[in-house]
Amino acid sequence: MKNVSILVPETAVIEAVADPLYMFKAVNQFLQASGKAPLFKVELVGFSKEIKLENSLFSVHTDKLLKDVKTTDLIFIPAVSGEMKTALKLNKAFVPWIVEQYNNGAEVASLCVGAFLLADTGLLNGKKCSTHWNQANEFRTMFPAVELVDGSIITEEQGIYSSGGANSYWNLLLYLVEKYTDRDTAILASKFFAVDIDRDSQSSFMMFQGQKEHADIEIIKAQEFIEVNYHDKITVDQLADIVAVGRRSFERRFKKATNNTVVEYIQRVKIEAAKRRFESSYKNINEVMFAVGYTDTKAFRTIFKKITGLTPIEYRNRYNKHTVTTNV
User: Tell me, what's the pLDDT at 54?
Assistant: First the structure.
C-alpha cells in the first residue's frame, strides 16, 4: 500500500486538492474491478482539521494533521492562489516537513504554481522544474537556483516532480499512476477522465506578454520598440543605436532583463502577433506570415512550431472556430 499525502495549504486552489484525491481513489476502484487489491491510501493533510478556501466558499476537512504524519510515500503540493510571497509565508510550516519526508524516501510532486512552495524547500535547487507559464518570470526571480523549463508539462528529477499550468497537472497525475501501476491502468484513467495521456507541452497555450518586470530603462525602451515595429526587419545594431548602448553591453543586459536573447524576443513577439491573427481572422498562412514580418515560409513554420509546439495550420485549426482549409 502506497501512502499518498495531499497537502491542503492555506489559499490552496480547491481543484488542485480535489483532483488528485479523485484520481487516486478512482484508480483504486479500477484495480479492485480487475480483481486486484487497492494500491493507494490517500489522505488530505493540513495544519488543522478544517481549512477554509476561496474566501470561505469551500471548507476542506483533512484526514490528518501535518504533525501526525510520520511517514508517507508520495506528497502532492497543490497550486496556491493569490500573491505568491504571501502564500509562502502562510504555508512556511510545510517546508521542514516536506524536506524531512523527502530525505526519508518520499517522492514529492507539485501541481501548477504549487512549484513555488516546492521551490521554497530548497529541494529544487540545481534541478529542473515546470510551473504555469504565466508566472514563469516571477518564479525565476524568486528562485534563480532552479532551472525552470519553459513550456514543459512534466519534469522529473530524483523523485521530485512538477507540472505545468492549470489543467496540465492531470498529465502528471496520469504519469504517476502509470509509474506506480502500469500503462493499461493509466490509459483507463485517461479515458475515464478524458485526458490526453501523452501531452507533453503547454507551449500552445502560452501567451507572450513581454518581460518588463525589471528596472533597466534602456531595455524597456528597446522592448517597446520591438513590440510596435515587429512587422519590420529589426536588427540588434539598430536597437543598440536607438537606446545608445554598445552592442555587446546591450545584448548582455537584454538577456539578463528578459531571459531571452534579442533575436528570441523579436521572434516571440512576431509569433505572438501571428497567433492572435490566426485566432481572430480569416487570413491564410501566407497573409499572416507577411503581416508579422516573415517572408520565408519554411523559417516561419519552423520558428512557429518551436515556440508553440504546433504548425501554423494546426494552431489555426485548433484555436480559430472559423477555420478554412489552407496549406502552407
Answer: 85
Domain assignment of residue 51, yes or no: yes
Helix-helix angle 297-308:262-280, to 10 degrees:
90
Same domain, 265 and 134: no
User: Both 53 and 86 in a single domain?
Assistant: yes
Q: How far apart are CA 160 and CA 157, in angstroms?
A: 5
Range(s) of the domain holding residue 143 = 2-205
166 and 234 in one domain?
A: no
Whether 190 and 221 map to the same domain: the answer is no
Residues in CB range of 218: below 8 A, 6 or more apart: 243, 244, 245, 250, 253
226-264: buried (b, 16+ CB within 10 Å) or exposed (e) per residue?
bbeebeeebebeebbeebebeeeebbebbeebbbbebee
Give the pLDDT confidence of 190-239 residue by residue, as tens digits.
888 877 765 554 454 445 666 777 889 999 999 999 999 999 999 999 99
3-18: pLDDT as tens digits: 999 999 999 999 999 9
| Shared domain check, 196 and 252 | no
Residue the block writes with cell 503547454: 202
CB atoms within 10 A of CB 33: 9
User: Would you give the end-to-end CA distance of the chain in angstroms?
Assistant: 53
The one-letter code for the residue type at 74 is L
pTM tops 0.85: no
Report the CATH number at residue 37. 3.40.50.880
User: The C-alpha cell of 223 is what?
Assistant: 522592448
Q: What's the domain count of the chain?
A: 2
The verdict on residue 139 lying in a domain is yes
Q: Tell me how far apart the alpha carbons of residues 209 and 230 are, in angstroms, rounded to a whole number.
A: 14
